Please model this.
Amino acid sequence: MASITEILKEIGSVPGPLDVIRRKYIKELSDYTGRNTIVYYSGWLSKQDAPNTDINDLDMTGFMEAVKGLDCSKGLDLIIHTPGGNPMAAESIVKYLRNKFKNDIRVIVPHLAMSAGTMIACSGKSIVMGKHSSLGPIDPQFNGIPAYSIKKEFEQAKEEVTNDPNTIMYWRIQLEKYPAAFLNMAISSIELSEVLVKEWLGTCMFDAEKDIKIIDKIVKGLNENENSKSHGRHLDLEFCKKLGLKIEKLEDDQELQDKVLSIHHAMTLTFNSSPAAVKIIENNIDGTMVYNVNLK
Model:
């Protein structure tokens, strides 16, 4: 006879309908491609004020859980949907996945992979995008604030104080919201993003020596400083393809498109139906890590 506690544990271990549906579609995609599938999805679009929707160091535990039990010799299709985040966390994730899958990584973007998400996309051997998919400028964010905007604010303060010392009190109040050495951190992160994308492009999607002109063009095109000065700008399939990135069109394989979009819709419904869930990392053999926010 099972005790009440044992039955409660058993009930808690039974996946809900949305969990079953998500995992079914992820497995179907993996069966179709013959490759491993890991899905990294943020619920930031429906929960914009929730913490931990960005790419950060907490994600490594989820990726380790997702890789566990996979046959890494089959390569990886990494499906990502993220607003971006910390470039140093992205660097750790890319290093880990490349080590496990020997650079045999294809990145699939069903909707949005912004900022550090674009950086991760550039680490793959190709990027699968649909007509509805977008990448974004690669400048990092701090608590949702683009690093480039922080840099520009400090530059504006310096210029205005130099021209009119009477503005010093105004700018002192404005800049007090940032902790000490924050500007240096923002500038370093901008520089790191460029270095990492250039390195990753040259060690998988392209040859660092033969394709240096293409790599430089891509980095320049994705760099916020050279681009539109709008961190939230959506860079669609055609823009990314003209930039020189190796883009596979999702619409060229109708069955692949159906399976990828089924996963996207199942993930979206999960976030809409669960007030607590803010991020999911999941694989094709039912390995799942759900990040929840504490609700009051």
About this structure: The mean pLDDT is 89. The chain has one domain: 16-292. The two ends are 36 Å apart (CA to CA). The longest strand covers residues 36-42.
